Amino acid sequence: MLQETTTVLPGIKQFDLTGRAAIVTGGSKGLGLAMAAGLASAGANMLLVNRTADEGARAADELSRHYGIRALSFSADITDKDQTEAMARAAMEAFGRIDILINSAGINIRGPIDEISPADFEKVMRVNVTGTWLCCRAVTPYMKESGRGSIINLASTLGLVGLGNRTPYTASKGAVVQMTRALGVELAPFNINVNAICPGPFLTEMNLPIADTEEGQKFVVGATVLGRWGHLREIQGAAIFLASDAASYMVGSLLTVDGGWTAR
Predict the structure, then answer these.
(1) Residue 195 and residue 5: Cα distance in Å, rounded?
(2) CA angle 60-66-69, nearest 5°?
(3) Nearest 5°: phi and psi at 208?
(4) Taking the model in full, what pTM does it have?
(5) Residue 59 has what pLDDT?
(6) Distance between alpha carbon 41 and the CA centroid of its chain, in Å?
(7) Residue among 67, 142, 169, 249 flagged as catalytic
(8) Helix/strand/coil (H, E, C) string of the chain?
């Protein structure tokens, strides 16, 4: 046993995802599509899950043509239990396995607490927290049956630090952080790794409304050490790593990709 733990076998491609099947929610645009492209570049087939059928179909077709993998689109509301279960069944029917789940779908509603309605708060929590939980729940039986799996939740630097006018979003991402830790402990005995990526400011569609504002420049981009927005390709390495065998000893970990936001 000692020899096994101290020997590094040569020639193992730890980042190779060839033949594996992934589900990526929110996979038709933004960080979700960027991470899907990263997995595709490593050889993974995938099911892109989104609310807009046409947008998802275009993204899946682009990934298939560019990377030579099999990518399909599935339209679902991740806040609905029946639809998330149908999502998992669709992946099993298409690929016969579910190796990877990336929970990228999410929303953000900004504003002072006295101007945010309870309905707004509940909507953010429903998508970002309940939706993530339901997707994890939907794939868990299949991963348990196969004896392996990788679940990657999208938290945020705002699940680790505070920022004004973001109470719904920060609360939801803090919940995703703790969900990741708890589920990591729960599923580790089944050889299912659950970890989270905590992105900093990437110039996605969600952040476009503040891109040119004083708030965006001073309190968002200005909070990073690099002093700029992240490029979408810069999230891909983290996704490939956590989806691969290279992350097999990581449980409930938080991988920050934030331009140094949380470093100071």
Answers:
(1) 23
(2) 65
(3) -55, -35
(4) 0.93
(5) 97
(6) 17
(7) 169
(8) CHHHHHCCCCCCCCCCCCCCEEEEECCCCHHHHHHHHHHHHCCCEEEEEECCHHHHHHHHHHHHHHHCCCEEEEECCCCCHHHHHHHHHHHHHHHCCCCEEEECCCCCCCCCCCCCCHHHHHHHHHHHHHHHHHHHHHHHHHHHHHCCEEEEEECCHHHCCCCCCCHHHHHHHHHHHHHHHHHHHHHHHHCEEEEEEEECCECCCCCHHHCCCHHHHHHHHHHCCCCCCECHHHHHHHHHHHHCHHHCCCCCCEEEECCCHHHC
CATH number belonging to the domain at 18-255, selected among 3.40.50.300, 3.40.50.720, 3.40.50.620, 3.40.140.10: 3.40.50.720
The phi and psi torsions of 100 (rounded to 5 degrees) equal -140, 135
Contact 184, 152 (CB under 8 A): no
* Closest of 130, 101, 110 to residue 24, by C-alpha: 101
Q: Measured between alpha carbons, how far is residue 230 from residues 91, 124, 172 in Å? A: 31, 23, 22
Q: How many residues does the chain have?
A: 264
Measured from the Cβ of residue 200, the count of other Cβ atoms closer than 10 Å reads 25
How would you label 116-130 residue by residue, b for 16+ Cβ within 10 Å and e otherwise? Answer: beeebbeebbebbbb
Tokens of 119: 């309905």
CA atoms within 13 A on the CB side of 47: 26
Residue 105's pLDDT band, with cuts at 50, 70 and 90, is very high
Cα atoms in the Cβ-side hemisphere of radius 13 Å centred on 84: 23
Place of tokens 């995938």: 46
169 given a catalytic annotation: yes
Looking at the predicted structure, is the pLDDT value of residue 164 above 70?
Answer: yes
pLDDT tens digits, one per residue of 215-229: 777 768 888 999 999
